[in-house]
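User: Hey, my collaborator sent me this sequence without any context and asked if I could get a structure. I don't really work with proteins. Can you help?
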Amino acid sequence: MKNINRVFLIVLDSFGVGELPDAAAYGDEGSSTLASVSRCPELRIPNMMNLGLYHIPEIGLRAPRNIPMGVYGKMAEASAGKDTTTGHWELAGLISHQPMPVFPEGFPQEVLDAFEKATGRGVLCNKPYSGTQVIKDYGPEHMETGKWIVYTSADSVFQIAALVEVIPVTELYEGCEKAREILTGPYGVGRVIARPFLGKTPEDFYRTSRRHDFSLVPGEMVLPRLLQEHGVDTMAVGKIYDIFAGVGFDEPHYTKNNQEGMELTAQMVEKDFHGLCFTNLVDFDSAYGHRNDPAGYAKALTEFDQWLGTFLEQLKEDDILVITADHGCDPASPSTDHSREYVPVLIYNQNLRPGCIGIRNSFADLGKTIAGWFGITDGISGSSFEEDLVWMQEN
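Assistant: No problem. I've predicted the 3D structure and written it out in C-alpha cell form, which is a compact way to encode the shape of the chain:
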C-alpha cells in the first residue's frame, strides 16, 4: 500500500446515485439524484466523469468511452434511516441499526412543556414545515409574541427559528442547548438546529448564515476520534464538526455555503498536517435538493466540478482525494425529503491505478479503508476495500 500523508474527504451532501433495494420502504422507489440532474443542460462535470462517475456500476446512465483516471464505485447504506447524521456517522464507521426518531405529527406536548419551562418562551407551529415558508407563515405572530418557531421535517431534527431582532442569536443558541438536553432517549433527534432569520416583513424574511447544529454525541467509536487517538490530525470543514458534536476533531472550520467550503478545503492543501480533512458541501441538499430545483443542483455541481479541476492539480503525491455523499435528495421527485439511495465513491491519487471497487454493502467500508491508510486496522465497523486498490508504486 502506498504511504498516505493526507486524505481529503469531500461529502457532496445528498448526491445519491440511484435507489437502494429497500427504497420503496422509505417512499423513495425510483429516486436517483444523479439521473435527475443529468437531464439538465446546466450540468457540465467533465472532471467527475474523468474520475469515473458515469462508470459506476448500475446507475442507469451511459458511460463515456474514456478510461477513468480514478477509482470508482458506490456504497449502500446499512444503517436504518436516510438522514444527515446517520449517513455521516456510517461514513465514519458507525452503523446505526435503530433509526433516529422522527415526528411527522409534531413533538409531544411533554417535550414542548419542558422546552417552554426551560426557556421561558412559548412555541409556535410544531409540525413538519419548509424552513423558508415557516418563517413567512409564523413570522408575524413570532414578532408579536416572542414565541419560538419550532418545526421539523422528515429528517430527525428539532428546528428553532427566531428573528434576530426578537430573540438574539446568543439566546437562540442557548435555547437550542436546552432543547438538546431535553431531547434524549425516545425523543433523541439527530440534530437540534438554530435557524436565525432577518427581515421586516414576511415578504423579505431570509435565513442568515448563523445556523448552528447541536447534534447527538456518537455513542460508539467514529473515524475522526479513532484517528485523533492515534495521533493523526483531523480537520472539519462545513457542518462536519457539528454533525459529530465535535468528537474527534482538532479544528472546526465553519462555512456559509459551498463556495466557502471549497475555498477552505483548497486552503487546507497549503497547510502542513498529517491526517484527514473532512468537508461537507451543504448547498446541494439545503438549497437545491430540498427545494426541488434540479437546474440549481446541476449548476452547483458544475461549479464544484470547475473547482475540482484546479484542486486536483494542487494535490501532492502522498495526498488522496475521496468524493462521496451521505444520502440522496432527488430534486425531481414529488417529495422534498431525503431519498434512500446509493452514494458514489470517487478516489484519486497520482499513484493509484484506476479501477472499480464495485458495489459496497456499507458506507462504513470507506471509513475502514481510510483508517487503514493511516495504519489503523481496528476500532470501527466496515470492510476495507484496500485489497481492491492497485498502487503503481510501492514503498
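In plain terms: The CA atoms of residues 353 and 389 lie 7 Å apart. You can pass these C-alpha cells on to your collaborator as they are.
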